Amino acid sequence: MPTNPISRYLLDRRLHLQALHRNINQQPGPKPSALPVLVVDQKTDEAVDGEPTPNRISRQTLSRLLERTSPSKVPGVALDVVLDEALPHTDALVAVLTRQQRNRVLAGFFGSDVSAPRSGRTSMPLAQLQAAGVKAFDLSTGMPASQQNPKPAPLQLIASLGSSNFAGQIFGKANTVMPADSVVDWNLGWSSMIQRVEPDELACTASIFIRVF
Fold first, then answer.
1. pTM assigned to the model
2. How far is residue 28's CA from residue 139's CA, in Å, rounded to a whole number?
3. Could you tell me if 139 and 112 are in contact, meaning their C-beta atoms sit under 8 angstroms apart?
């Protein structure tokens, strides 16, 4: 039997009413520990004296950021970046990863459903980076692509998310799956679940998610 998709307008109003209900009953929602996030941009290259790579994230900058963190204090690092290209200073990044021997170093690749050049297994990290301990997971977020600016608030997944996805690995709970059509409640105060950190704060950070901007 054919079905009609959920109206975004009606779903948006429903989430708004849920937020009012939670506020009235003093039910703010989950309060997990904030995820430390370092956003890498052109200023980061300057902060760590890394050589910029045009239109790409500098491998020298990545290696120097990792050198500022202790593997014993930060056993897991998530790099929201695709490492499939041979770029300058890849050997330096491999050397740091090999020396530090962290428990987990995550990176991403473009799954087969992503409309991007070299999508699929061809976008996996370089062999030497995988040998140094980098594990790659599908960067798909289960959200529909949008060309709108600003982008509309995500309300519903169009594909499931689980341990095979980069996002699922960051969540850190094994075998947890968000099925397709799950509703994302934008009223839960997501900003409080993220802690922005800067390069000079890495020495005292317990875990880190490095986001490329």
1. 0.80
2. 29
3. no
Q: How far apart are CA 59 and CA 79, in angstroms?
A: 12
Alpha helices in 26-79 (DSSP H): 42-47, 59-67
What is the gyration radius of the CA atoms in the chain, in angstroms? Answer: 19
144 phi and psi, to 5 degrees? -70, 140
One-letter identity of residue 76? G
Q: Which residue bears the tokens 């390069």?
A: 199
The pair of structure tokens assigned to 34 is: 């904030």
Q: What's the pLDDT tens digit per position in 48-104?
A: 999 999 989 999 999 999 999 888 888 889 999 999 999 999 999 999 999 999 999
Helices (H), the chain: 8-24, 42-47, 59-67, 90-100, 127-131, 166-171
